[in-house]
Description:
The protein is an alpha/beta fold. The protein is built from 13 helices and 5 strands. Helix 7 crosses helix 8 (194-205). The relative contact order is 0.12.
Amino acid sequence: MKSNSAPLQRKPLLLWLDLTHDRSSEELIAQFRATCDCRLARDSSLAEREPGQQPDMICMHFDRPDALGLNLLLEVKRTAPSIPITMFTVQHSEELAVWAMRAKVWEYMVLPLPDSEKKRYLHALEQLCQLRWSEEFHTKKPLLEHGNRLPESIRLTKEHQKHQALQKALQHIDQHFRESIDQKDLAQRCGMTPFRFCRLFKETLGQGFMEYILHKRMDFARELLSNSQMPITNIGYEAGFKDPSYFARVFKQLLGCTPSEYRSECRPAAMPGAADEGIEEMVGARSHARY
């Protein structure tokens, strides 16, 4: 995994649950062994985890998700709420992806995986592990900051001072632009009144803070459109838009084309079609498989 950040202390530990009907997860797991410590769970209870060996990710591999398997995912989420879940599935539909998002699955991956999608996933996993491991370390022993501060005697330019004044707000936006962000909260983080914050933000960045957030969301959506098989409706939700029609309208207004047109231009090759079966049929179907 390539990253601009510091190397990982160890390989991410992935605990795999094989929920395929023909028990074919080994072939998928083999794709991750070079960069991750992969372990196949003996059963679905997760009760056999060794002390001190908590997984960094629970990977649940489906071929055709059914009621039993999806209910098991919810049960795993309840029994191990602190461990993120990746759902790998061959059978895919928009309803299933929305269900996974609402179930708070960390990542939803449609098989087979293109190389670009695998690299994107591994990069995101690396960043997640760095964050989780650093948080674990901080709870044990706080780190001392050794940042080199500029001497007070140095006169900073006005432009630099403006950016410094907005730094906390920009960092918060970078981390939470897919969520609802309140202007008053950003102003308080910078120690300003909402009026002064709004004025300084536009003066410094050339656009209002809502316009800035909107462009961040658009950049995120464009990345997903170019490098994932996620349905367009889900991409809108992932980017922070609660209304798919509003997402499509703003996308065309800012970029001059619809999300589907943008995806077609970026990815001219035909992509596997989504399955027609809805999540209601999956959940309602009877399954004779045992997990």
